[in-house]
Amino acid sequence: MKPKLTWIFFALIAAPLIALAWLGYTSARDEQQNTARRIEALISARLEEVGQLVAKRMDHHRQTLDQLLILDDRDPQGIRQSIREQRLVRQIFILDADGQLVHPPAQGPHNALETAFLARTKPIWTAKALIPRTEDTSAADKPDWYTWYWGSGLNLIYWRQTKDKEIIGAELDRMALLADLIGELPKTEPAASDGATECVRLVDANGRAIYNWGNLHPPDQTQPQLEIALEPPLAAWRLQYFPSSPDDLAGGRLWPKITALAALVLVVIGLAVYFLRESGREIREARQRVAFVNQVSHELKTPLTNIRLYAELMEDRVDEEDEKAAGYLHVIVSESQRLSRLIANVLSFARNQRQQLTIRRKAARLDDAVRDTVEQFRPSLEAKGLAIELETEATHLVELDPDALGQILGNLLSNVEKYAAAGKRVHIHCRFESATSEITVEDGGPGIPRQARKRVFHPFYRLSGKVTEGVSGTGIGLSIARDIARLHGGDLTLEPSDTGARFKITLATPPIEEQADEGTGR
Amino acid sequence: MKCVAKRIAIIVALAAVVCLSGSAQAQLKIAGGKAVTPIQKVDLNVALGSSVMLARTPGRAFLKIGLTGFPLTTPAQRAQVNVAIVLDRSGSMSGEKMAKAKDAAVMAIDRLHPDDIVSVVAYNHSVEVLVPATKVSDRQQIYGQIHRLSADGNTALFAGVSKSAHEIRKFIDRNRINRVVLVSDGLANVGPSSTGELGALGYSLIKEGISVSTIGLGTGYNEDLMVALAKQSDGNHAFAENATDLRGIFAHEFGDLTSVVAREVLVEIQCAPGIRPIRSLGRTAEINGNRVVSRLNQLYSKQEKFLLLELEVPATAAGSQRQLATIDVRYANTVSKSTDILGATASVSFSDSHESVVRSQNSKVLVSSVSLIANENNKAAVVLRDQGRIAEAKDKLEQNAVFLETSARKYKSKKLKKRAGANRSDKDNLEGAKWKSRRKRMRGAQFAEDQQMVWD
Fold it and tell me: Where along chain A do its domains lie?
């Protein structure tokens, strides 16, 4: 019983819970993945926005430089004055159509800044790197950026070719540009009250941080969650995004859900186990009770048999005249018969519980067995004013357990006596056909309501209402009767009928070939 | 006009051959009284180390171009300031340093007028703008923001200064004094962090008229970087060995800041043909052939700032006279709100007589020259010490002390004598635990000498 219950418990509670947990987990994971994707798109958009900010600023500088590079005044002092005033400009240079330097003047004198400029840009002049893309002079005037790496990073030159095929360019001061962009980029806001932190970082071509903003300070070597490159000419620089913790997006919101789900599963399993244990205890207790009753019944059985035996012996001996004594003895006999049926039922029920109820078939005739039982009941039935109509058509010798049949039939007749006395009659009909014996018991009583038809066979079920009021009963009679019938390869069913209750007993009773001394069996 | 001025000057100076013609002075003298000088101008004083040079031999001349800020008669005359206080809030600043820095900042802002502009920026690995550029009117709100500051993390010095410059730019104005005051106790380690890079930042900021004053706190900061940033942007630099020094330093800094009388001072020296400028001692100057340009972001009231040029003069016949250079100075007068232009020329005569050369010597110019040359020697000693050549550094400092002592006797200069003592003291502190702090002291003193920063 117990392992079965465990399996039921598992099937009913654990399995759905596990399924639920799995579903919950997968849906939460999907949702979280979607959220992560959404957030990533959001961050990406934010980085792009910052990238646009930088691009816009570079456009602004480009416009300033466009103005500067018109350079109407070619006087070296004027150019030097411009450089002193333009914070983003480190140096201005002019190349003539042959690629020779006009400014800083090739023949000198150079100031310290110009000398340094010529030294660091030497590769550009020797490689003639600033070559217009086209010979078309109209397109040639379009200014362009030139990037090169010198010193500790990216350097920018903004240059254009004039109609006279001169090249005028400005070298940007990298530090001034950096300072300018840092000024334009967002600042770090005071730490938010909800503790949400992040870090956005601008890194140069070598991966070195130029500028951070956001309250988070990611440890060294931390990989960014997301990274985008800036637009040319600063394409070597990248914007990186660092969330406050790696699973801020990956699992941060998933764990609480899983935990909640796990807690729920645990609570339900805990409850289930509690009830299982409780019911197990009840079953144990019930079993103990049954065992006790069984024990008691056993103990009662022997004295009762003796009482019946001596009462019946006494009945034979008592004086015909002494009606009073005969009457008393009759009551003793019938009451002890009732008690032994009850005990038989209890014992059968207990055996059935232990699956020890067995059928002991022997050669017998159905009619005889039925008649024996009916005769036993006759006095008490007739005492209640019930007319017994017995129809016997099964005379064939069959393999039958007469005790079992007696118990089934006894239960039915006992019910008739208890509940259907008002019907004034009971009709019993037995017949045999192709290895099956069939007995119907029909009364004229109040019958059984339609909705209770199935449940009357359940153990301990008793019909409520007028009929059962004031009548004692254990509620196991029909149940045990049907179990026995089923053990006997048949069934006990409640047949539809117009009035009263009509029970049908079927039993598997293989026929036995009649011997020569057929008659002596009776 | 110039001719008249010249003649008057010649008469006044009698035997002097050198002609100084600061136009402001000339006008004053013509007017003959101070009562009728409602418009005050910066005093330009051009002088040579000696106005007579030995003839028939190539020589060197020291040309000193001094600019002295006029006194402010009332506090209301001072120009409005636009100042950004940048506080290092990296982990090393925690505790007393942070507390004293906050105190000093609050005290400094207390001195400002309600119309002045202030912003407060704090940086560690990132930059927080505690107080965006605003008028000083709501002091309590500003102080509240400063007091909420706590220290942790790294040192993004470049970004901190960049962001403060951005705040300054919001209210940048010809008539305001733009200044970043930076307090740092650590090594810059986020973003550009080299001396050259921070120097370049300073150089780009002075183009906008923004100076950065740097205050190094404790012995953990990079003094070369802090000096470069201040020098390139014409700010001040100070070494605060203890956090308790910050109050005094801030008082000096804001004292300077609120006594500016001239802004964007451009000094241009056009040397006569044949005269070659060799170098500028102390201040940085751009030498384009025989044309020298130097820029001072501001002049403070009653303080003299000067440019000292070493010129190469070719051999010239005795008895002749030669014009060495014409000097043009242009600046924005913060009191009159006008652009003033000053001019002067420097000439020298030649003689065979050593005596007349010595007689013509201007001891003030020569003391400045000696002082700046000795300053270069002091810098060279630091370089030697940095290379681990301690013995050579000691020799250098000893020689320098002797040179200063000799000169001090010659020109009867207490200042040079004091410098000689300082060099001896430096010599004794090149090793051991004191070196770290001594190096900062030396770099601070070198900076002060170069920039004529007089805070003592």
Answer: 359-521
Strands (E), A151-263: 153-161, 167-172, 198-203, 209-213, 226-229, 238-243
Residue from A383, A453, A390, A467 nearest A426 by CA: A390
Residue ranges in B14-83 assigned as alpha helix (H): 23-31
Helix, strand, or coil (residue A158): strand
pLDDT of residue B122: 95
Q: Is the domain defined by A359-521 classed in CATH 3.40.50.2000?
A: no
- Report the candidate in B237, B231, B239, B175 with the shortest Cα–Cα distance to residue B205: B231
pLDDT of residue B29: 41
C-alpha distance from B207 to closest chain A C-alpha (Å): 5
* Predicted local confidence at residue A195, as pLDDT: 64
Residues 139-168 of B with CB under 8 A from A: 153-154, 156, 158-159, 161-163, 165-166
Tell me the nearest-neighbour CA distance from B422 into chain A, angstroms.
Answer: 32
Sign of CA dihedral A211, A216, A220, A224: negative
Range among A233-237, A459-463, B161-165 with highest mean pLDDT value: B161-165
Considering only CB atoms, B127 lies closest to which of A109, A187, A199, namely: A187
Tell me, what DSSP letter sits at residue A460?
T
The size of chain A, in residues, is 522
Please, which residues 72-91 of chain A have a Cβ atom closer than 8 Å to chain B? Answer: 76-77, 80, 84-88
Bond into A123 cis (ω within 30): no
Angle at B199 between CA B196 and CA B201, to 5 degrees: 115
With a CB cutoff of 8 Å and minimum separation 6, the contacts of B133 are B82, B84, B117, B118, B119, B167, B168, B170, B171
CB atoms within 10 A of CB B451: 20
| Residue A423 exposure: Cα atoms within 13 Å on the Cβ side | 26
Query: Are the C-beta atoms of A352 and A300 separated by less than 8 Å?
Result: no
Partners of residue A511 on adjacent β-strands: A398
Query: Domains of chain B by range and CATH?
Result: 2-74+293-352 (no CATH), 79-258 (3.40.50.410), 364-451 (no CATH)
Task: Please state, in angstroms and rounded to a whole number, the distance separating the CA atoms of residues A317 and A41.
Answer: 108
pLDDT score recorded for residue A331: 82
Task: Determine the Cα–Cα distance for residues B379 and B372; give it in Å rounded to an integer.
Answer: 10
Enclosing H/E stretch for B214: strand B210-217
User: Helices A477-487 and A402-419 meet at what angle, rounded to 10?
Assistant: 150
Q: Does B277 touch chain A (CB under 8 A)?
A: no
Determine whether the interchain pair B288/A76 forms a contact, defined as Cβ–Cβ distance below 8 Å.
Answer: yes
Cβ separation of A173 and B200 shorter than 8 Å? yes
Distance CA A268, CA B361 (A): 105
Distance from CA of A87 to the nearest CA of B (A): 5
Q: Is the Cβ pair A217, B124 closer than 8 Å?
A: yes
Q: Which residue of A has its CA nearest to B197?
A: A175
pLDDT score at B440: 95
According to the model, what pLDDT value does residue A12 have? 78
In whole angstroms, what is the distance from residue B252 CA to residue B372 CA? 23
Q: Vertex A417, ends A414 and A423: CA angle to 5°?
A: 140
Q: What's the DSSP call for residue A10? A: I
B284: amino acid identity, one letter: T
pLDDT mean by block of 10 residues, chain B; 456 residues: 47 40 41 55 95 94 96 88 95 92 94 94 93 93 92 91 96 91 91 93 95 94 95 95 93 94 96 95 93 95 95 94 96 93 96 94 95 96 96 96 96 95 95 92 95 86
* pLDDT exceeds 70 at position A227: yes
Dist. CA A410–CA A374, nearest whole Å = 8
